[in-house]
Design brief:
By secondary structure, the chain is α/β, with parallel strands linked by helices. The chain has ten helices and seven strands. Strand 1, helix 1 and strand 2 form a beta-alpha-beta unit. The mean pLDDT is about 95. Bound molecules: NADPH dihydro-nicotinamide-adenine-dinucleotide phosphate.
Length: about 250
């Protein structure tokens, strides 16, 4: 899987899955664009990126996705196009869990925050960065799903609704772009993974019983492979994709 010299934007790159993907992809020679809301966490991850290849160039974009709008998304496009000739991929990874409570008790401001970060921001970012993606030879947009995108479960509230919405968004993007653009769109459910989000969703669970974010790297790499260019399928879950990846 040729990931070297590819330029990849990872949202929510300061922790959990996004942070590990950033570090591991940099070791494989990618240019990493780290997007996060916390400047000091961004600096710390930047310092862990591999820069051994002299042509590698990484970038920090500090942005709170809860507040993303047309103007700030265009500022992001400008920042990317002034540093790179093209953008090979967006991994729309950032999300928050919100509150685990009934719909009846769900606070409206919290509801809006979850929907803005988890669903509205990936929509704005993906549509705005499309011109930069189209300058790449085999570009990708990856959305991040969840088990609660398939079945509504009590107390998962806005998070679950945002992932249902994201599934629709990914399908619509995929369908609109398949005949008009070289951009491939995927939606991936990484499954239960040892991160701070999982720990706050399931505080009683033993984190050591879960896979680590590092075990997801091969799956994310597959989305940038030649094999995935020919995939007719857009939605993948970890178990299925990891079997596919290990058998190839
Ligand atoms: P974490 O909570 O560990 O990391 C989330 C990342 O998103 C952090 O870097 C966080 O930044 C960032 N983020 C949150 N809000 C904003 C914002 N407003 N602006 C910019 N960045 C923001 O989560 P995971 O790594 O577990 O989750 C990654 C993805 O995987 C999510 O989409 C999640 O829904 C999905 N997923 C995770 C599963 C799991 O078991 N872990 C299972 C299924 C899906 P900060 O460091 O500042 O908090």
């Amino acid at each position: 899987m040729k990931i070297s010299n590819k330029t990849i934007l990872i949202t929510g790159a300061t922790d959990g899955i996004g942070k590990v993907l950033a570090i591991e992809f940099s070791k494989l020679g990618s240019n990493i664009i780290l997007l996060g809301r916390d400047a000091s966490k961004l600096d710390k991850v930047y310092d862990q990126l591999d820069q051994s290849n002299a042509s590698q160039k990484h970038l920090i974009l500090e942005a709170d996705l809860a507040l993303l709008n047309h103007e700030s998304a265009h500022e992001i496009l400008k920042a990317i196009t002034s540093e790179y000739n093209s953008l090979d991929g967006i991994i729309n990874n950032a999300a928050i869990l919100g509150t685990m409570t009934t719909l009846e008790d769900y606070e409206l401001s919290r509801w809006d925050e979850v929907l803005n970060i988890n669903l509205r921001a990936p929509f704005i970012l993906s549509k705005t960065l499309k011109p930069a993606l189209e300058n790449a030879s085999d570009p990708r947009i990856i959305f991040t799903s969840s088990g609660v995108a398939k079945i509504g479960r009590a107390f998962w509230g806005a998070y679950s609704v945002s992932k249902f919405g994201l599934k629709g968004l990914a399908e619509i993007f995929a369908n609109e772009l398949e005949s008009t653009s070289s951009i491939k769109v995927f939606n991936f459910d990484p499954g239960a993974t040892q991160t701070k989000m999982r720990a706050s969703a399931r505080p009683a669970e033993d984190p050591s019983s879960l896979k680590t974010p590092s075990e997801l790297v091969d799956c994310y790499l597959w989305f940038f492979s030649e094999e995935s260019s020919n995939s007719k399928k857009h939605y993948f879950e970890y178990d299925e994709l990891s079997r596919k990846v290990t058998s190839t």
